[in-house]
Design brief:
188 residues; SH3 type barrels; 0% helix; 6-stranded mixed beta sheet; mainly beta; single chain; OB fold (Dihydrolipoamide Acetyltransferase, E2P); 6-stranded antiparallel beta sheet
């Protein structure tokens, strides 16, 4: 049953039979007219992003989401296999259902988000920050010391990201899996 709900980032909504994640929202109170909520929504299945406005009194059906800790086991090329930490049950998902898949490493701890009412897996999410080793980095050229110059690096997960010139092969770096970017070098 639909009810009036406060919209927030990360919330999963059911609209017209489809599931959407709220990426951004803003409450707007214009000088003339009724207040409304402006949102950017992402389809959980297709990944399509679009904008939609809701009058402030709109009835929205929220989805009850369960976050279950899980561990990445392996991939067979098309599917990624995980194990729920509480029950030790294994499940598989497609690459599209793993958020931050390029930073996934063996035995990585993640969270699986389930539609609790339908008992349907929505997606698997990596922690926002992970620490990975740089296995290949371009050489810095002496004299390249202008602020914010970046170079390509390959991480132990296989991901390619841009890192500052001082980062070298063998260094460990902290990476934001949502923005897909370098945060800082980590001391071992």
């Amino acid at each position: 049953m639909a009810q009036a709900v406060d919209i927030s980032n990360g919330m999963i909504l059911r609209l017209e039979g489809e599931l959407y994640e709220v990426i951004e929202f803003l409450h707007i109170k214009p000088g003339k007219g009724n207040p409304y909520v402006s949102t950017r929504l992402k389809n959980v299945v297709t990944g399509r992003v679009f904008e939609r406005n809701f009058p402030s009194n709109t009835k929205i059906e929220p989805v009850r989401v369960e976050r279950r800790p899980c561990q990445y086991l392996y991939s067979d090329g098309t599917l990624y296999y995980f194990m729920e930490e509480g029950t030790f049950e294994q499940f598989s998902v497609s690459e599209a259902q793993v958020r931050g898949v390029e930073f996934l490493t063996e035995n990585q701890r993640c969270e699986a988000l389930w539609d609790a009412d339908a008992e349907r897996l929505l997606f698997v999410e990596l922690p926002q920050f992970v620490i990975l080793e740089v296995i290949e980095a371009e050489k810095a050229i002496k004299g390249d010391s202008i602020t914010n110059i970046m170079k390509q690096a390959v991480l132990s997960s296989g991901a390619r990201i841009r890192v500052p010139l001082f980062v070298e092969t063998g260094d460990k770096v902290k990476v934001d899996t949502r923005k897909k970017e370098y945060i800082e070098r980590v001391k071992s």
